[in-house]
Amino acid sequence: EPEVTQTPSHQVTQMGQEVILRCVPISNHLYFYWYRQILGQKVEFLVSFYNNEISEKSEIFDDQFSVERPDGSNFTLKIRSTKLEDSAMYFCAGASLGGTDTQYFGPGTRLTVL
Amino acid sequence: SQQGEEDPQALSIQEGENATMNCSYKTSINNLQWYRQNSGRGLVHLILIRSNEREKHSGRLRVTLDTSKKSSSLLITASRAADTASYFCATVGTNAGKSTFGDGTTLTVKP
Q1: Which chain B positions have a beta carbon within 8 Å of A26's beta carbon?
Q2: Got the DSSP string for A81-104?
Q3: Which of A78, A99, A101, B58 has its CA 20 to 30 A from that of B45?
Q4: DSSP characters over A39-59
Q5: Residues of chain B below pLDDT 50
Q6: Which of A33, A89, A104 faces B45 most closely, judged by CB atoms?
Q7: pLDDT digits (tens, 9 = 90+) for A18-74
Protein backbone atom coordinates (compact mmCIF):
# COMPACT_ATOMS: atom_id res chain seq x y z
CA GLU A 1 0.00 0.00 0.00
CA PRO A 2 1.44 3.43 -0.91
CA GLU A 3 2.62 5.57 1.99
CA VAL A 4 3.50 9.16 2.66
CA THR A 5 7.19 9.46 3.51
CA GLN A 6 8.98 12.24 5.34
CA THR A 7 12.63 13.08 5.76
CA PRO A 8 14.47 13.50 7.97
CA SER A 9 12.85 11.65 10.83
CA HIS A 10 14.64 13.90 13.31
CA GLN A 11 16.23 17.28 12.71
CA VAL A 12 18.20 19.18 15.31
CA THR A 13 19.04 22.80 14.56
CA GLN A 14 20.24 25.95 16.22
CA MET A 15 17.86 28.84 16.79
CA GLY A 16 17.91 31.20 13.83
CA GLN A 17 18.86 28.54 11.31
CA GLU A 18 16.77 27.62 8.29
CA VAL A 19 15.33 24.14 8.02
CA ILE A 20 13.60 22.34 5.18
CA LEU A 21 11.34 19.42 5.96
CA ARG A 22 10.60 17.11 3.09
CA CYS A 23 7.62 14.98 2.23
CA VAL A 24 6.84 12.63 -0.62
CA PRO A 25 3.05 12.31 -0.83
CA ILE A 26 1.17 9.42 -2.38
CA SER A 27 1.39 9.83 -6.15
CA ASN A 28 -2.29 10.30 -6.98
CA HIS A 29 -2.93 12.84 -4.22
CA LEU A 30 -3.74 16.40 -5.22
CA TYR A 31 -4.27 18.12 -1.86
CA PHE A 32 -1.36 18.49 0.54
CA TYR A 33 -1.11 19.65 4.10
CA TRP A 34 1.35 20.39 6.86
CA TYR A 35 0.45 20.01 10.51
CA ARG A 36 2.49 20.22 13.65
CA GLN A 37 2.20 18.73 17.12
CA ILE A 38 4.06 20.26 20.01
CA LEU A 39 4.95 17.57 22.56
CA GLY A 40 1.92 16.65 24.64
CA GLN A 41 -0.44 18.88 22.69
CA LYS A 42 -2.98 18.45 19.91
CA VAL A 43 -2.21 18.34 16.22
CA GLU A 44 -2.47 21.83 14.69
CA PHE A 45 -3.10 22.73 11.07
CA LEU A 46 -0.44 24.85 9.38
CA VAL A 47 -1.21 25.05 5.69
CA SER A 48 -3.03 23.38 2.82
CA PHE A 49 -1.77 23.35 -0.76
CA TYR A 50 -3.58 22.59 -3.99
CA ASN A 51 -2.83 23.24 -7.62
CA ASN A 52 0.57 24.70 -6.74
CA GLU A 53 -0.72 27.34 -4.41
CA ILE A 54 -1.70 27.75 -0.79
CA SER A 55 -5.42 27.11 -0.22
CA GLU A 56 -5.56 27.97 3.42
CA LYS A 57 -3.13 28.76 6.20
CA SER A 58 -3.38 29.15 9.94
CA GLU A 59 -2.16 31.97 12.17
CA ILE A 60 0.87 29.84 12.99
CA PHE A 61 1.96 29.90 9.34
CA ASP A 62 3.57 33.33 9.36
CA ASP A 63 6.21 34.85 7.09
CA GLN A 64 8.84 32.52 8.52
CA PHE A 65 7.13 29.56 6.89
CA SER A 66 6.86 28.64 3.24
CA VAL A 67 5.80 25.60 1.26
CA GLU A 68 6.78 24.41 -2.14
CA ARG A 69 6.20 21.51 -4.48
CA PRO A 70 9.31 21.96 -6.56
CA ASP A 71 9.25 18.91 -8.79
CA GLY A 72 5.79 17.39 -8.78
CA SER A 73 6.67 14.77 -6.21
CA ASN A 74 8.32 16.39 -3.19
CA PHE A 75 6.40 18.74 -0.92
CA THR A 76 8.54 20.86 1.37
CA LEU A 77 8.04 23.05 4.41
CA LYS A 78 10.71 25.66 5.01
CA ILE A 79 11.17 27.55 8.25
CA ARG A 80 13.45 30.49 7.53
CA SER A 81 14.71 31.39 10.99
CA THR A 82 13.79 28.79 13.57
CA LYS A 83 12.72 29.70 17.09
CA LEU A 84 12.73 27.55 20.20
CA GLU A 85 8.92 27.32 20.03
CA ASP A 86 9.12 25.74 16.56
CA SER A 87 10.26 22.53 18.25
CA ALA A 88 7.52 20.03 17.41
CA MET A 89 6.63 17.02 15.32
CA TYR A 90 5.74 18.12 11.79
CA PHE A 91 3.38 15.95 9.79
CA CYS A 92 2.74 16.05 6.07
CA ALA A 93 -0.58 14.74 4.79
CA GLY A 94 -2.25 14.26 1.45
CA ALA A 95 -5.63 13.49 0.01
CA SER A 96 -6.94 12.86 -3.45
CA LEU A 97 -10.23 14.70 -3.15
CA GLY A 98 -9.66 17.41 -0.60
CA GLY A 99 -12.36 17.92 1.94
CA THR A 100 -14.35 14.83 1.12
CA ASP A 101 -11.57 12.32 1.31
CA THR A 102 -9.33 10.53 3.77
CA GLN A 103 -6.15 12.35 4.68
CA TYR A 104 -3.12 10.12 4.90
CA PHE A 105 -0.36 11.26 7.19
CA GLY A 106 3.35 10.70 7.01
CA PRO A 107 5.35 9.43 10.00
CA GLY A 108 6.47 12.96 10.89
CA THR A 109 9.72 14.85 11.35
CA ARG A 110 10.70 15.69 14.88
CA LEU A 111 12.26 19.16 14.84
CA THR A 112 14.33 20.17 17.83
CA VAL A 113 15.48 23.79 17.99
CA LEU A 114 18.30 24.46 20.47
CA SER B 1 -15.07 24.26 24.05
CA GLN B 2 -12.99 23.83 20.92
CA GLN B 3 -13.76 22.06 17.67
CA GLY B 4 -13.11 18.36 18.07
CA GLU B 5 -13.01 17.71 21.78
CA GLU B 6 -12.69 14.13 22.93
CA ASP B 7 -13.76 12.61 26.16
CA PRO B 8 -12.66 11.00 28.27
CA GLN B 9 -9.12 12.38 28.25
CA ALA B 10 -7.85 9.06 29.53
CA LEU B 11 -9.38 5.60 29.61
CA SER B 12 -7.95 2.48 31.20
CA ILE B 13 -9.57 -0.91 30.60
CA GLN B 14 -8.79 -4.63 30.72
CA GLU B 15 -8.07 -6.61 27.61
CA GLY B 16 -11.28 -7.96 26.11
CA GLU B 17 -13.41 -5.04 27.27
CA ASN B 18 -14.93 -2.49 24.96
CA ALA B 19 -13.62 1.08 24.80
CA THR B 20 -15.80 4.01 23.88
CA MET B 21 -14.45 7.44 23.10
CA ASN B 22 -16.52 10.50 22.28
CA CYS B 23 -15.85 13.57 20.21
CA SER B 24 -17.82 16.80 20.09
CA TYR B 25 -17.45 19.62 17.62
CA LYS B 26 -18.94 23.05 17.06
CA THR B 27 -19.19 23.92 13.38
CA SER B 28 -20.68 22.07 10.42
CA ILE B 29 -18.51 19.41 8.87
CA ASN B 30 -17.84 17.64 5.60
CA ASN B 31 -16.59 14.54 7.33
CA LEU B 32 -15.04 13.35 10.56
CA GLN B 33 -12.03 11.09 10.81
CA TRP B 34 -10.56 9.08 13.65
CA TYR B 35 -6.83 8.53 13.99
CA ARG B 36 -4.61 6.51 16.30
CA GLN B 37 -1.22 7.65 17.47
CA ASN B 38 1.23 5.50 19.35
CA SER B 39 3.54 7.46 21.63
CA GLY B 40 5.88 9.68 19.61
CA ARG B 41 4.79 8.16 16.33
CA GLY B 42 2.72 9.19 13.32
CA LEU B 43 -1.02 9.34 12.86
CA VAL B 44 -2.67 6.21 11.57
CA HIS B 45 -6.00 6.73 9.85
CA LEU B 46 -8.72 4.49 11.27
CA ILE B 47 -12.01 5.47 9.73
CA LEU B 48 -13.77 8.33 7.93
CA ILE B 49 -17.45 9.04 8.34
CA ARG B 50 -19.18 11.54 6.09
CA SER B 51 -21.70 14.07 7.29
CA ASN B 52 -24.57 12.16 5.64
CA GLU B 53 -23.62 8.88 7.32
CA ARG B 54 -24.68 7.79 10.78
CA GLU B 55 -22.60 4.70 11.43
CA LYS B 56 -19.61 2.90 9.99
CA HIS B 57 -17.81 -0.27 10.86
CA SER B 58 -14.30 -1.44 10.20
CA GLY B 59 -13.23 -4.66 11.86
CA ARG B 60 -13.46 -4.11 15.63
CA LEU B 61 -14.16 -0.41 15.16
CA ARG B 62 -17.58 1.17 15.12
CA VAL B 63 -18.02 4.89 14.58
CA THR B 64 -21.24 6.82 14.94
CA LEU B 65 -22.01 10.37 13.93
CA ASP B 66 -24.87 12.52 15.18
CA THR B 67 -24.80 15.79 13.29
CA SER B 68 -27.74 17.18 15.26
CA LYS B 69 -25.71 16.85 18.45
CA LYS B 70 -22.42 17.56 16.69
CA SER B 71 -20.87 14.48 18.20
CA SER B 72 -19.22 11.24 17.21
CA SER B 73 -18.18 8.13 19.07
CA LEU B 74 -15.54 5.51 18.44
CA LEU B 75 -16.13 2.06 19.88
CA ILE B 76 -13.34 -0.50 19.95
CA THR B 77 -14.71 -3.93 20.75
CA ALA B 78 -12.78 -6.75 22.39
CA SER B 79 -9.81 -4.51 23.05
CA ARG B 80 -6.24 -5.79 22.96
CA ALA B 81 -3.08 -4.54 24.63
CA ALA B 82 -1.90 -3.44 21.17
CA ASP B 83 -4.80 -0.96 21.05
CA THR B 84 -3.01 1.10 23.70
CA ALA B 85 -2.53 4.51 22.04
CA SER B 86 -3.96 7.99 21.79
CA TYR B 87 -7.06 8.38 19.66
CA PHE B 88 -7.97 11.64 17.95
CA CYS B 89 -11.00 12.80 16.07
CA ALA B 90 -10.49 15.33 13.30
CA THR B 91 -13.21 17.28 11.57
CA VAL B 92 -13.02 18.52 8.03
CA GLY B 93 -15.29 21.44 7.30
CA THR B 94 -14.13 22.84 4.01
CA ASN B 95 -13.52 21.59 0.50
CA ALA B 96 -9.82 22.34 0.90
CA GLY B 97 -9.84 19.69 3.59
CA LYS B 98 -8.16 21.30 6.57
CA SER B 99 -8.49 18.92 9.54
CA THR B 100 -9.18 20.26 13.01
CA PHE B 101 -8.02 17.86 15.68
CA GLY B 102 -9.25 17.36 19.20
CA ASP B 103 -7.09 16.87 22.27
CA GLY B 104 -7.34 13.11 22.05
CA THR B 105 -8.18 10.25 24.37
CA THR B 106 -5.33 8.19 25.79
CA LEU B 107 -6.40 4.56 25.93
CA THR B 108 -4.55 2.03 28.03
CA VAL B 109 -5.51 -1.61 27.63
CA LYS B 110 -4.11 -3.78 30.39
CA PRO B 111 -3.25 -7.38 29.50
Answers
A1: none
A2: S--GGG-EEEEEEEESSGGGS--E
A3: A78
A4: TTS-EEEEEEEETTEEEEE-T
A5: 1-2
A6: A104
A7: 999 999 999 889 899 999 999 888 899 999 999 889 999 999 999 999 999 988 789
